[in-house]
Write a structure and sequence with these properties.
Layout: H1 4-14, H2 26-34, E1 55-57, E2 78-80, E3 87-88, E4 101-103, E5 110-111, E6 123-126, E7 132-133, E8 146-149, E9 155-156, E10 169-171, E11 178-179, E12 192-194, E13 201-202, E14 215-218, E15 224-225, E16 240-241, E17 244-245, H3 277-299
Length: 300
Amino acid sequence: MRSSTNISSRRSRTAVPRAWLDRSHLALVATVLAVCCVAGCDAVCAIQPDSTTGAVIIPEGTTSISPSAFRGCIDLVSVTIPSTVTSIPTDAFRDCTNLESVTIPDSVTSIGSGAFRNCPLVSVTIPGSVTSIGISAFYGCTSLASVTIGDSVTSIGSYAFNGCTNLASVTIPGSVQSIGEAAFQGCTSLTSIAIPTSVTNIRSYTFKGCTNLASVTIPGSVNSIGTQAFYACPCAESAYIAGATLVNCSASTGAPTTSEPTPAPTGAPATFDDTRTSSAASMFAHIATVAAAVLVAVAV
């Protein structure tokens, strides 16, 4: 039998946290490993979608999901996120081109940039626990017909719902203080929108190209409207600021160069980096580190 001195010495040499040497924590370590998927996990992933339904149920007790964890999982049709997860990170489900349904628990407080970008989600309910919707979170979700935004959301990121061509209605709650540039650009099925009194600025291109947006309510709290915010929107007749008609709503200065939505940035931010090599490598390194700790724990 190994003495406690030997165990202490081994801990010192390997610098493994005490908790990991307790076998009762091995299940938790395994759970962390389970969600550290490699980008493009249709090929390699610790959690594979059900072969019949395409469903993934992330285990209860999981506390975090790695960025790009399920990115490009083409077999993923639905996902259930457990109540122990507090955030959906950058690009977590990006380019899951068959993902139609997601269950977001009321433990989640933020939805990261590009989290569901280019997913064919049909409807989304964002719970009241969420305070921020990241840049391009639902960019290009062309099947998205309805969105329920919880009443704790304070910011909707730029391009958040850009290009959601099937989105017919959305209610922006009174908690929202900031709506990012081009957030709803190209939502060609959107027919009406009411800006809450908590918003003071409508940024450039916010509703540009919403060609069926006939009714817009803008409160007196709004003190600035950005370039082409309502370009090509048939809303001039019904839009108003504190009861006054908003003139030239559909004829903002300048002419668009394309009828397509303004593309999301493709430059420096990692959110929009299509090169998966670095993220995959970092995930492999993380998995190797945790696996080594597990081996040490088992040995002890």
